[in-house]
Amino acid sequence: MHDQPLSVAQDRADRRSGTRVSVDLGAVHVGTSSVVRVIDLSLGGARCVGLDPAGGPMELDLALPAEPVPLRVRAVALGSAGSEVRVRFVDLRTRDMVKLAHALW
Fold first, then answer.
1. Which range among 5-14, 43-52, 72-81 shows the weakest confidence by mean pLDDT?
2. Domain that residue 63 falls in
């Protein structure tokens, strides 16, 4: 059996099917030191309030429950609606994905 490439629509559906959890976490936009509120979190990204999406890729320090040190993630903005900005995490290491998974479940 050959693996078939996913269509763009199927790829988008798969990416959005990940478990999303409503949260209320603090974060800092590295480089600007802006305080951000994370209101929705998944293994693939987050929805944030107080984040300026301008400037391309960014780093966020996420304050995860039960983690003594904030988790630094690289992210890109996907879009915004009002004061909310959706970001996708990029280049997550396995150990960082585990930390996010623990925060989600």
1. 5-14
2. 18-104
